[in-house]
Amino acid sequence: MTKILRMIGGVAVICAALAACTLLPDQNNLRSRNYNVRQVAVLGAANVPVVVVDRVNKQLQQAIAVTRYDDVRPRVVITVNILKVQKDMGIHKTDNIASVLVKATYVDNGAEAGEGGFEVSTQALNSDVADQALAEKIAGRVRYLFGLAHP
């Protein structure tokens, strides 16, 4: 009898947890597909490898070029500022982290449309691979946030 009550209690707890998740707003889907991104500028702090800045810029320029919109949206330019890159972190010296700030500015009047920051992390044994992986992660996150197509 106790075994059956435990099983029923366990199922009830799981069902309650799943039901609670569906009632919460989707916090992971905060991206904005409301802008027509016209141009991007990628900047990097002094410690950011030039390869990372160049690759992010190239990938985002290509994404903007292939993205098509079905409706009229406010035109913006975005500035991606790579604030900090930390490489060879962790116990095995394979963790790499980049801090990024993204600003969107309206083309029509120059007003700020929005601003936000995020961090990306990768693992790589080789420094060159780490730079490529960080660049891909940063570009991928910005593409996701602005609904840009993958080139």
Describe the structure concisely for a colleague.
The chain has 151 residues and is of the alpha+beta class. It is built from three helices and four strands, in the order αβαβββα.
Topology:
Elements: H1 2-23, E1 36-44, H2 50-66, E2 75-89, E3 95-106, E4 112-123, H3 127-146
- State the end-to-end distance: 60 Å
> Which sequence of strands runs across the widest sheet?
1-2-3-4
Tally the helices: 3
Report strand %: 25-35%
In total, how many beta strands?
4
Estimated radius of gyration? 21 Å
- Average pLDDT figure: 81
Percent of residues in helices: 25-40%
Order of helices and strands: HEHEEEH
Largest sheet: 4 strands, mixed
What spatial form do the alpha-carbon principal axes imply? extended
State the secondary-structure class. alpha+beta
Q: List low-confidence stretches.
A: 22-31
Folded structure, characterized:
The chain is of the alpha+beta class. 39% of the residues lie in helices and 32% in strands. The protein is built from three helices and four strands, in the order H-E-H-E-E-E-H. It has helices at 2-23, 50-66, 127-146; strands at 36-44, 75-89, 95-106, 112-123. A four-stranded mixed β-sheet has the order 1-2-3-4, with helices on one face. Strand 3 and strand 4 form a beta hairpin. The longest helix has 22 residues, at 2-23.
Which descriptors would you attach to this protein?
4-stranded mixed sheet, alpha+beta, about 40% helix, about 150 residues
